[in-house]
């Protein structure tokens, strides 16, 4: 049975970025969409519940949507939109589909001629690029390196790249990555490590790979995802 939405917004798939750290990093438009949609698809319903509570948004119909159930939930959510419900797709932090679950339902929506409305908003990539101080005429975002299979190919493809490069890495693998980048670029390219972006302990560490390894080795309990910005000048 189709549904006549009581809200002003239309039945569509809304791509809604959420804060990556500081809860104030969310747009007024995103808050309005979260308030008005029928369903919010999110990686962690408890985390989304906390965000909604912080902004005084009444409890919505929350549906878990994460990497392991993405295929099944994509079909379900598309059907909900077909029946007249509006759906907001979110991730735990940042923009869905950008190194986070989301591309499958977006592709499925395209295949079914369902309207997709992507909202601008929080991302760690742009603050890291701007905060690096590097000259950014163009950049290439390559996401997380593979852990094992395909890692060497991934890294070797960076050697001849002429753009500023942006990589994401976890705290427990950042030293390994820096060692690999030191070998690839012969420790001649500066790197900016941005972590804990928009949070209290936000930090930018800039230097050549060997310098960064030394600095990080002196720190204990590294936390927070790293955005690794590699300068294109050596």
Question: Layout of SSEs?
Answer:
Elements lengths: L12 E3 L12 H9 L2 E4 L2 H10 L6 E4 L5 H13 L4 E3 L13 H9 L4 E3 L6 H8 L6 E5 L7 H6 L7 E6 L4 H11 L6 E5 L7 E5 L1 H9 L8 E5 L4
Parallel strand pairs: 1-4, 1-5, 2-3, 2-4, 6-7
Antiparallel strand pairs: 7-10, 8-9, 8-10
Helix pairs in contact: 3-4, 7-8
Number of strands: 10
Q: Separation of termini? A: 62 Å
Helix vs. strand class = alpha/beta
Structure annotation, total helices: 8
Quick synopsis:
This protein is α/β, with parallel strands linked by helices and 234 residues long. Helices cover 32% and strands 18% of the residues.
Describe this structure in words.
The longest helix is centred in the first third of the chain and has 13 residues, at 70-82. This protein is an alpha/beta fold. The protein contains eight helices and ten strands. The protein folds into two domains: 13-118, Cobalt-precorrin-4 Transmethylase, domain 1; 125-230, 2-Layer Sandwich (Methyltransferase, Cobalt-precorrin-4 Transmethylase, Domain 2), CATH 3.30.950. Helix 3 packs across helix 4 (103-111) and helix 7 packs antiparallel against helix 8 (209-217).
């Amino acid at each position: 049975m189709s549904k006549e939405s009581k809200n002003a917004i239309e039945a569509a798939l809304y791509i809604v970025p959420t804060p990556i750290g500081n809860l104030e990093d969310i747009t007024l438009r995103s808050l309005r969409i979260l308030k008005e949609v029928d369903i919010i698809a999110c990686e962690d319903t408890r985390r989304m519940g906390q965000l909604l509570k912080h902004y005084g948004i009444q409890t919505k119909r929350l549906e878990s949507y994460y990497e392991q159930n993405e295929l099944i939930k994509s079909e379900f959510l598309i059907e909900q939109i077909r029946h007249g419900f509006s759906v907001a797709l979110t991730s735990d932090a940042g923009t869905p589909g950008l190194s986070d679950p989301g591309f499958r339902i977006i592709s499925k929506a395209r295949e079914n001629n369902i309207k997709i409305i992507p909202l601008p908003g929080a991302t760690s990539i742009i603050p890291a690029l701007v905060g690096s101080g590097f000259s950014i005429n163009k950049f290439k975002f390559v996401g997380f390196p593979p852990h094992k299979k395909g890692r060497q190919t991934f890294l070797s493809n960076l050697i001849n790249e002429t753009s500023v490069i942006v990589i994401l890495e976890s705290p427990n693998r950042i030293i390994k990555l820096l060692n690999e980048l030191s070998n690839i670029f012969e420790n001649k390219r500066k790197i900016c490590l941005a972590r804990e972006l928009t949070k209290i302990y936000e930090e930018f560490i800039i230097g050549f790979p060997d310098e960064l390894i030394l600095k990080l080795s002196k720190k204990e309990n590294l936390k927070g995802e790293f955005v690794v910005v590699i300068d294109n000048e050596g």
